[in-house]
Design a protein that fits this description.
single chain; about 500 residues; mainly alpha; Fumarase C, Chain B, domain 1; Fumarase C, Chain A, domain 2; 2 domains; two-stranded parallel sheet; about 55% helix
């Protein structure tokens, strides 16, 4: 098992993305338990002084004007976890839940949350035993914390919720008893701190970023094959042209297509053709893919900042004061997720246009729909329709969630971020785009088999073709295409081929 060491270093989403695929051993730096203990002791001093601390000796939200006696403060925390465990829907992917818990540990490691040290130890214990709480996917508006999802995690840790074991939700109490692990006993600020925070929204962003950068590499690689097999111009991707624009993403995408098609006999075959300019979906790949790449990079910077932030309320400051703010509000995360949604949807939209270009026969160079016997056969007509359906769906899903808000908690929480919905629909957009790219890869590969198989493809495109040609039965003519699309989608999603291309210097 690999190790995730929680230290005072600055983390990135890439440090947490391995948790999406399996457990990591979480180890705390020696300085962290001391910071957590000091924060808790400061909280006790603040409470002993008689100060009002929201959610610790008061009620919550609209009930914050009600004072809570010391004897009832731990009961308050327990009731909070119970009442806030109100999520619905399917259970979240366990990888996302692992990331949520690890991000919780990180925010506590800063020593500003006032939680009991046992709370941090229990989270680490759950992670290291791969005890993953069963968490419903819906029920957070991304403000005042991702309350429902975080409460379900807390409920499992205190032995009242459920844990996913062998794909099924089982009683947390029974499983912990069987493993001889004591449930967490909540102290003065543990409940509110466990349910406060942006960790669920941020965990979705971690997953979306890991997938997003892979999609960008896939789009550049597959579009390079489309450029090559559609007999489009390679010269438009020369670095001297794109250095005149100051967008890093554009320069990278142009370079990727240029390097992928290097040494191609197919490119040389039509170097003296009379076509002046190709459609935008080919000629403007660097501009479109590049803009999307820059958007994902910008979003990653925002998410990395959120990962390293203290996401809690109230806060225990270093001088012993209590700080009240809205650090649980996920507006930064919501806007970053919406930005990514637009970018990834555009990747799918331009891919669909390249598919369309093949369908109409590449200006008469190929048979319509790449059919071997047009009329008798329909070729890839409906594969294109599928891509169109997905691209259209993405246009609706890409509408920003962050521009919406519905007040909650009796109006106390009068503007919310909607970050979880922004993240949820982004993950759907990404699934759709993976399938659109799979269809483009299917069609670009088929055009190679049908029209260019006697010519040597480029350095990068030949490697791509080598990894997929056994899947595609282009010479067979009309057939069911679903299995081929699904297999290509799986190859794109696991990303191994793009890592190989990177290692060989054919992708940046």
């Amino acid at each position: 098992m690999s190790t995730l060491r929680i230290t005072k270093k600055t983390f990135t989403f890439e440090d947490f993305s391995p948790l999406l695929n399996g457990p990591l051993k979480v180890v705390l730096d020696r300085s962290i338990p001391k910071k957590v203990k000091n924060s808790y002791q400061q909280l006790l001093k603040i409470l002993a002084s008689g100060k009002i601390v929201y959610g610790v000796n008061t009620g919550f939200g609209k009930l914050s004007n009600i004072r809570i006696d010391e004897a009832d403060q731990e009961k308050l925390q327990l009731n909070l976890v119970r009442s806030h465990s109100a999520g619905i829907g399917d259970f979240l992917d366990i990888g996302i839940v692992r990331v949520v818990m690890a991000l919780k540990v990180l925010t506590y490691s800063h020593g500003h949350s006032g939680v009991h040290p046992e709370t941090v130890r229990k989270l680490v214990q759950f992670l290291n035993n791969d005890l993953v709480p069963a968490v419903p996917e819906k029920g957070s508006v991304g403000a005042s914390g991702d309350l429902a999802q975080l409460a379900h995690i807390a409920s499992s840790i205190i032995g009242e919720g459920q844990i996913i074991q062998d794909g099924k939700a089982v009683s947390s109490k029974i499983l912990l008893n069987k493993m001889k692990i004591n449930p967490l006993v909540l102290h003065q600020k543990d409940g509110i701190s466990l349910v406060n925070g942006t960790q669920f929204s941020t965990a979705i962003a971690v997953k979306a970023l890991a997938s997003g950068f892979n999609i960008l590499d896939a789009a550049d690689s597959i579009s390079a094959l489309s450029v090559e097999t559609s007999l489009s111009s390679r010269n438009t991707f020369k670095s001297a042209i794109h250095k005149l624009k100051k967008h890093k993403g554009q320069i990278i995408s142009a370079s990727n297509v240029w390097k992928m098609t290097a040494g191609s006999q197919i490119v040389n075959f039509h170097k003296n053709c009379d076509v002046v300019q190709d459609p935008y979906s080919f000629r403007c790949i660097p501009h479109i893919h590049g803009a999307c790449r820059d958007a994902i990079v910008q979003s990653s910077e925002t998410i990395n900042n959120e990962i390293n932030s203290v996401s809690d309320n109230p806060l225990i400051l270093r001088n012993g004061d209590i700080g009240f703010s809205g650090h649980f509000h996920a507006e930064h995360v919501a806007i970053a997720l919406d930005h990514m949604s637009i970018a990834i949807a555009e990747i799918g939209a331009v891919s669909e246009r390249r598919i369309h270009y093949f369908m109409k026969g590449v200006e008469g160079k190929f048979q319509p729909f790449l059919a071997k016997n047009p009329g008798i056969e329909s070729g890839y007509m409906i594969a294109h329709v599928t891509a169109s359906a997905l691209a259209s769906e993405n246009k609706t899903l890409a509408h920003p969630a962050s521009v919406d808000s519905l007040p909650t908690s009796g109006g106390q929480e009068d503007h919310v971020s909607m970050a979880p919905w922004a993240g949820s629909k982004l993950l759907t957009i990404q699934k759709n785009v993976l399938n659109i790219l799979a269809i483009e890869l299917l069609i670009a590969s088929a055009s190679f088999t049908l029209y260019h198989s006697k010519l040597k493809p480029g350095k990068g495109t030949s490697l791509l073709l080598k990894n997929i040609q056994n899947i595609i039965n282009a010479k067979k003519g009309d057939r069911s295409l679903t299995i081929e699309i699904n297999k290509l989608k799986d190859i794109i999603e696991n990303g191994k081929i793009f890592k190989i291309l990177k290692n060989k210097g054919l992708l940046e």
